[in-house]
Amino acid sequence: MFPWSRPRSNASNSVLVNQGAALTKEEKAADVAKTVLKTLLQVVVEVSDAFGPLQSVANGLNFIVKNIEKVGDNTAAMQKLLRRVKKIEELTKREDHGHGDECPVQCIYRDLDAIMETLDPIAHQNAIERFVRTSQNAALIQEYISSVEQALYDYQLTLVQGLQKLGTEQIGYAERNALDKLTRAKNAGFDASNHRSRCLAGTRTKVLHTLQQWAEDPDGHQVYWLNGHAGSGKSTIAQSFAEMLLATGDLGASFFCSRDSQQQSDLKTIFPTLAFQLATANNTDSPRYRRALLHALEKHPDIALSSLHNQLEELIIGPAQTSGITAIIVVDALDECRDPNSTSIILDLFASSIVRVPLIKIFITGRPEPHILSGFCLPQLVPITDVMILHEIDDMAVNADIRLFLQDKLSKIAEDRRRNYGTSIPSNWPSDSALDALTKKTAGLFIFASTVVKVIENTYYDPRDQLQKVLANTDDSSYEGGFGLDNLYLNILDGASPRHDDGFLVRLRSTLGLLTITNDALLPSTIAKLLGLPRSSDVRIILSSLRSLLVIPDDWSLPVCFHHQSFPDFLTDPARCTDPRFFINRDDHHFAIGQRCLIIMRGRLKKNICDLSPYAMNDTLDVALRDKRIGDATRYCCRYWANHLLSDVKRDSHLHMIEPLLLDFLSNQQLQWFEALGLLQELGRAVEALSDVRAWISTCSKKYRVLLEWIVEGQRFVLYAFDVISVSVIHIYHSALPFSPKSSLMRKRHISELSNEARVEVGTATSWKQSLRTIQLPGAAQALEYSHDGAMLAVGGQSICRIIRSATGQNIMDLDPSGAIQSLSFSPDDTTLATASNKHLRVWDVRTGAIIAELLHGETTIQHIEFHPAIKHLLLSKDNEGTVRLWDLEARHCQHTFEFLIPVIGGSLGCRTLCWLKGSSKKAILLAHSTHAELLIASGELPRRLRTYPYPQSINIQSPTIVSSEDGLSIALGSKSGSIAVYDVKSGALTYSISSHYKDMRFLQLLPSHDGRGHTTTFAFATGPSVCLLYGNQHPSSRAITLNGHADDVVSVASSSDGQFIASGSRDKTVRIWETRNSARSPCNPTIKGDHSHAIESGRLSNDGLFAFSISFDGTVKVWDTRGGTCCCTLAPSEVSSHSISRRHRRAAAILPGNEYLVTVEPNGVGKMWNLAGKEVSIWSNGPITSNNDFSEKVASTWLLPWGNEETLFGFFYCTCAYTRTSRLKKGAFRTQVECWTLHREASEPQPRMVLASSGEVPYEVKQIHHRADISSKSTTLTLHTKYGDQFTAVLWDYVLFSRSCQGLQFVREARRPADDIEGIVVGSETPYHKLVDHDTSWVIDEEGRRILWIPPDHDGPGTWQRDKLLLESRSGCLTVIDFSRTKLRDKEHSQL
User: Fold this and answer.
1) Partners of 823 in the beta sheet?
2) Nearest to 456 by CA among 424, 483, 429
3) Distances in whole angstroms, Cα of residue 1035 to Cα of each of 240, 368, 993, 1001, 1031
4) 3-state SS string over 1078-1134?
5) DSSP string, 267-326
6) What angle do CA 998, 1002, 1003 make, to 5 degrees?
7) Residue 330 in 3-state DSSP?
8) Nearest to 552 by CA among 194, 232, 259, 187
9) Which residue, 222, 426, 1351, 1364, is most buried by CB atoms nearer than 10 A?
């Protein structure tokens, strides 16, 4: 245990006392040695009573005490043995120690008895012989004590592992279940079966002793880096050190990284794995740590999916601080983790956090790769890190260890051949000269020695012949320190390849090529399928002679992999692998494997590959069943087919060879590919693969146009349905295909596979919508920013600060915004993100989610921030008073403040907007004022003005926005009035100007053009709920494209640096991604023929569900035939209806029973009747009663509800909900009034019959009305549904019963608030319709709780049920009608949502 946390035993030191008189140095050493020996004997005798195997040790030590005089040379060994004995005594006294498996005890008995024979040569000596052979006897004693110590160490290790396993099994079920939810690498611990063996006893003693001293030193540094080249033995030392720490109880956790394993090379699994091991370790502090960790998991159940910074804080640092745990963490081969950053992200995190837990030490091994070196050079790590450079250790010590290793291994090989094969190998083999020569050839690298041993132990050859072959090789090559591995590898490969068997050589090279280029560790069965071999056993036959270079496990469920990375490096380097028979050309193998992937997927992928039940969710599928149904080979192909094809540099010339395969896959099996990746939770791979393949095919010949069309179709489909496929792949057929456009290639190809249980009658688009992806958020995205590489999109808003993967919309991490985010900016290298929130400016590490800097801006609110385009530590900010500040993030202070820019009332110096001049390494700032723009250079106390750009008089500049081109040669000024002025930066001259018809231009962006018209400037900006692309050139003519889809005003716009994508955030709580290149080709891209241009305010189905109408916020009425999904007619808004948009008094309409007529009531009370072709039939002017009341100017909503019977041609209810003029309620109140109108067959116009007014003021607005006829009681129930706050919920309902002739109106129930558990809209007390549609998750749910239909964002909105049909009113202007007659829904009667 650590001395600074637990008192160390002084037993071994208490005997080291000065025995008095002045003695010689030799006499003192002998005296001390005898004292230690006697103490050791005494302790062993005492402990042997409890632990029987030590009796043999006691006998040996007693013999030494009585018969041996000179034992001084063995003092250190005896002290080490003494500590080992006392540790075993301590373990055997633990309460949880039981007898358990007796095999370890029997083994230690046998081993110690065998070791006792070491002293036999001394026992047969007389006194004179012992005196003469003192030195030889000392060596025998040393061997005896070391052997005993090693045997006891092995037993101690076995005992501790058993105790740890027992402790883990005793963890409660609930706790274990919570810990098991951590996404960890299960084979990353030191005790996994796939790790290298420990150091041979007697080797690496100095290195391990140094590490042990560091571990025990209370004042030692917190971090230790074992630095070494490939093959220098780092992992073997790490394994031995981890075992030593486990034996002493100091090991907290270990993580052995491996590039051959996806889990063990994934940064996201490191901290969860370490946390799990710390919580279950054989450590007295682990129970406290486990409780703290479980508390953290309870608070943050998804922490394993969070940023690395949050993982470290919540899983390691926080619980460690709470529990006070003392432990050492071992991380091996950190360089083998997939970390693309210039500085190791793990080291960066340790640097910033590890000092806060001083009782935890970290031991790390790794090659001196640039990102590892950079990490250990961090100023926070340097003062707390010890470094041992393994390849710079004294050559003599290393060579001695290697020689001992070779001697031990070769001697055991000889003994095995004599005993098991009857081979007559001399006892003195290998000779000392052979060992010396072999040691010299290793050049200090253990990987060479290890490989040689594997070559020699091959049972197909005589080990003497194999050794001679190795020694006969005199050619060396130079690589990582100068050693002869290259020629050794060539000799092994040559020996594994039968002469004159070209077929075998081809299969060998194909297998090695696959293993070299593969992205995952592969099973033998997977290798066989990828290579087209008939049997898995063929792989073993091919590789059987390469066991010295490859790990070929006997268990076929384990992967084949290289012993060391130096071998695949050798195979792919033509300068090193000089034999063309074995050289691996990566390009050829990539193409071959990519082709095989397409073939395998063609044969294996199918619809519903896992036989899911209808409407099943992905998380209900058993993982083992999923893996079995998909299979390892198919899973590999789904993941990497595109990677292999794109990694072939000769792919253009190879394309014609795979075109038929690729076209067949894209046209017939894309959906099944999406399904497989969705089940594997890797759907993002499909988006990335299609994007990369599209970029490739786009550059090829036009004859591949059909391929390109299918790739684009796949992109559109997977992005449109990404959310639903991610949670339920079977809903590709239940939901995604039914909502896909009618012209979709995917829909046409798979039309027979559509699930017709829910049929979309109205709302199916004719073509794909303009937006690629719609991302739903908890609030409006007030700020957006693309990273410079386009891979990330930062989103900010009220309590929102999120980084998403721009290609897929998947969430990467959430940051704590602490208020509303006003502006965002990525640093030039995309490693940091700056956020402005009120008066605070924060800078975040994008890789980890940690706050790098937090700066107080002052008393003013920050409106805009922007990183310098080339200098990562310079940040520009502007507040709401026009003050500009330039921040130096390295110094954590404001470098410049331009106070003279504060606006003066009536003046013109106020800074409206600003930006950096791109393409410049200087501090060049562009500012836009009320009357002009200017270019400044920030230097000294005051900026230096370089140039002024006066606004042209011909255009109206209002609320200017200024942007710079990427090359910094031109700037553009955009005005809210719709004007744009473009200037040449150097001359200051106006290049050209554009005056558009857009009158609310905001968030101007300057993009590279993708419209194929040459060097045309492209502008993007927001206007209202739309995003516009304006293509202009050197003259005022321009071409504009409007991108529609948002249901509310756009409040933020960002563009990717290449100009191919635009992101827009809206008050409708969505972010939409638009592709500019497709928009440029198709300026008119209607979605549904007859769609409204404004958001739909209301809609309703006819009583029989055959027709529907919709009314948009501009007063336009549309009538739809649900049977064909077509628009029957459009009624343009009347003058009063159109004018009333600024108020909230809307047009109302209803389709009368019989589907012959449509009734509309204008806001001024004029009623009209139309036929369904849109022709006006009659008009009446007496209007509803509410047209004359005292609150007509404040009407909030109006509704028409038709009804009829045998006496009445038609009737309708007219409901008005209005604000009251006076109210004592803080949030205002509404007064509701319902009128019943009827038209008898002999009458010319309808007449009012009855008025119902609400009994009091209530703070709820009526959003829907509903009536239900009850034939048995000859009454009708009228229900009012209300809106409370921003939620459409039933917080008020009334029952009104009256006869069909409208005689005897009766009020049944007072308005009241529902119980807290009521969700959604409720009709009556007995029918829980809120279970049918969950608008929060966009699902329709049946009576069994199954999610039977996903509603895309463009279709989601308030809805109405009419028998088996659902009408949805989308705020984006799309009316949707869905027929559920073939599904089981609770209560088939019509109702309201």
Assistant:
1) 836
2) 429
3) 75, 58, 8, 20, 11
4) HHHHCCCCCCCCCCCCCCEEEEEECCCCCEEEEEECCCCEEEEECCCCEEEEEECCC
5) GGGHHHHHHHHHHHSS-TTHHHHHHHHHHHHHH-TTGGGS-HHHHIIIIIIHHHHHHT--
6) 135
7) strand
8) 194
9) 1351
DSSP-H helix ranges across 1129-1268: 1135-1139
Residues 340 and 370: their CA atoms lie apart, in Å, by 11
Highest mean pLDDT of the ranges 51-65, 1070-1084, 1248-1262 = 1070-1084
Number of Cβ atoms within 10 Å of the Cβ of 429: 15
- Residue 557's nearest CA partner among 507, 637, 627, 604 is 627
Q: Which of 747, 660, 647 is nearest to 692 (CA)?
A: 647
Contact criterion met (CB below 8 Å) for 1203 and 1276 = yes
**Euclidean distance between CA atoms 1003 and 290, whole angstroms:** 50
C-alpha 1270: how far from chain center: 55
d(CA 576, CA 1089) in angstroms, rounded, equals: 66
Q: 872-908 in b/e burial notation, b at 16+ Cβ within 10 A?
A: bbbbbbbbebbbbbbbebeeeebebebeebbbeeeee
Rounded to whole angstroms, the Cα distance separating 1357 from 1353 reads: 8
3-class SS letters over 828-893: CCCCEEEEEECCEEEEEECCCCCEEEEEECCCCCEEEEEECCCCCCEEEEEECCCCEEEEECCCCE
Token pair in block for residue 1210: 């038609």
Q: What is the pLDDT of residues 680-715, one digit of tens each?
A: 999 999 999 999 999 999 888 888 899 999 999 999
Contact 212, 224 (CB under 8 A): no
User: Would you say how long the chain is, in residues?
Assistant: 1393
Tokens in use for 796? 């900010």
3-state secondary structure labels for all residues of 786-815: ECCCCCEEEEEEECEEEEEECCCCCEEEEC
CA–CA gap between residue 1065 and residue 771 (Å, rounded): 12
The answer to whether the CB of 1157 falls within 8 A of the CB of 1168 is no
Q: What six digits make up the tokens of 192? A: 């996994």
224, β-bridge pairs: 363, 386
DSSP track, 1293-1337: ---EEE-TT--S-EE--------TT--S--BTTTB-GGGTEETTT
Over the stretch 784-825, which tens digit does the pLDDT of each residue have? 999 998 999 999 998 889 999 999 999 988 888 778 898 999
**Cα dist from 643 to 474, 640, 648, 689, whole Å:** 41, 5, 9, 7
Q: Are 570 and 576 contacting, i.e. CB atoms less than 8 angstroms apart? A: yes
**In this predicted model, what pLDDT tens digit does every residue of 725-764 receive, in sequence order?**
999 999 999 999 999 998 999 999 998 887 777 888 888 8
Identify residue 1226 by its one-letter amino acid code. Answer: K
Query: Which positions ≥6 away from 210 have C-beta within 8 Å?
Result: 388
Closest to 85 in 3D by CA, of 35, 45, 30, 38: 45
Record the pTM. 0.74
pLDDT band at 453 (very low <50, low <70, confident <90, very high): confident
Q: Are 687 and 642 in contact (CB under 8 A)?
A: no
Residue 876 bridge partners (DSSP):
866, 886
Give a three-class secondary structure readout of 191-214: CCCCCCCCCCCCCCHHHHHHHHHH
Give the span between the Cα atoms of 841 and 832, in whole angstroms. Answer: 13
In angstroms, what is the C-alpha Rg of the chain?
40
Q: How many helices and strands in the chain, by DSSP H and E?
A: 39, 59
Rounded to an integer, what is the distance from CA 1247 to the centroid of its chain? 64
Are the C-beta atoms of 80 and 147 separated by less than 8 Å?
A: no
